[in-house]
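Issue: ligand-bound run for acetyl coenzyme *A - logging full I/O for the record.

Environment: standard queue, default settings, no custom constraints.

Inputs:
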Amino acid sequence: MNNTADTVTITNNNSGDTVTLPLMRGTKGPDVIDIRRLYAEFGCFTYDPGFTSTASCDSKITYIDGGEGVLLHGGYPIDQLAEKADFLEVCYLLLFGELPNAEEFSRYSESVTRHTMLHDQLASLLKGFRRDAHPMAVMVGVVGALSAFYHDKLDIFDPEQRRMASIRLVAKMPTIAAMAYKYTIGQPFVHPSNSLSYAENFLRMTFAVPAEPYINSPVLSRAMNRIFVLHADHEQNASTSTVRLAGSSQANPYAVISAGISSLWGPAHGGANEAVLKMLEEIGSKDRIEEFLRRAKDKNDPFRLMGFGHRVYKNHDPRARVLKESAEEVLTELGVRDDPLFALAMELEQIALDDDYFIEKKLFPNVDFYSGIILKAMGFPTSMFTVLFAVARTAGWVAQWNEMSGDTGQKIGRPRQLYVGELQRNFVPLDAR
Ligand code: ACO
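Outputs:
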């Protein structure tokens, strides 16, 4: 492969054919070879399972430098946003590309709070689930069902209608999530309260009961807000790529976001903080850490240290540090600073960070390592962890979907494949096989 300043030339060593392809340059990050003409001019596809070297789109929303541990939304570093911004400011930033001024923020917040309630029929639909259904299953179903409520009013090529769908989704997700939780524990649903912040309102809908007044804790709301901000977007991860792929057929956005929720559910993605907590409980005590580290390093053992490693971050996950801080604040506020799981997590983190295997493979704690501890201390059951991630990531999903749908050059997603199956053969009737 030969590089000149703005092109790359590829030679097929068998046939001697060459093709010169343009290089695309972003505002930051590696150049990207534009291979769109490759098949037409060279007769080859590229092979990249897991998209480890493939840019599927261009985007202005989020920038990640995994080597340096950098995550920017609209150019703003994630730790500044996590420490200083309200989640709805970040939603606005992702959707419109700029932080809102005071007036814009007030208008946007009001539009969101005006859409937090659900159609009553959705509550009936939710009540059709088994009480022991996983809340992520309920989320997939109920968010998908929103498509049946808003299908007629949606022209995805109209920016105003896309804005409305994005606001509705951001507004209704916490209500659906809290209802999914209340339903599994048999408590009545708590309606949203428009005078509260996004995080406060969510905590109230989740934990308030009609029998006594609900007292908001600023420390817990701050931590909840921070968890939402830290999980709001992460460029083209599995669930966001699912949203873009599903949305590329111009499907109904509520159905599209439901597809994103399905993708997020997996333990290698959004299910990891649930898996971290299970792992810590399984390890049980500090004297068993070495045994589990040995297993994590053993090629013949499928066990992996959950909450460690990341497809993109190979230095540190900038979200993990801020969350460790929040874990300390929340546990102190709740009077459980000496929580044994937290102590075990800190010890495990230190031992792994000093271990040659983890150093060589550049494996560091990711955002999920401490989030489970915080959420558990707040009173969320582990099955709700991924649900909270889905509430937060809806901000990124709708922003990415909106960006894609507004791009006039956008095409339906349709990857190619390397076929390794049988050559053509004739059908043999059942009784002759
Ligand atoms: N424990 C032990 N070894 C690990 C771990 C781990 N957590 N993560 C990666 N490795 C090893 C792999 O075995 C592999 O070793 P090899 O080179 O000898 O084959 C090497 O490190 C590279 O790992 P890959 O799986 O190729 O890295 P990839 O980028 O594909 O995977 C992933 C990233 C899936 C996150 C992985 O690190 C993992 O499974 N971590 C645990 C699950 C987890 O915490 N997921 C949350 C991700 S963050 C999020 O979704 C918000």
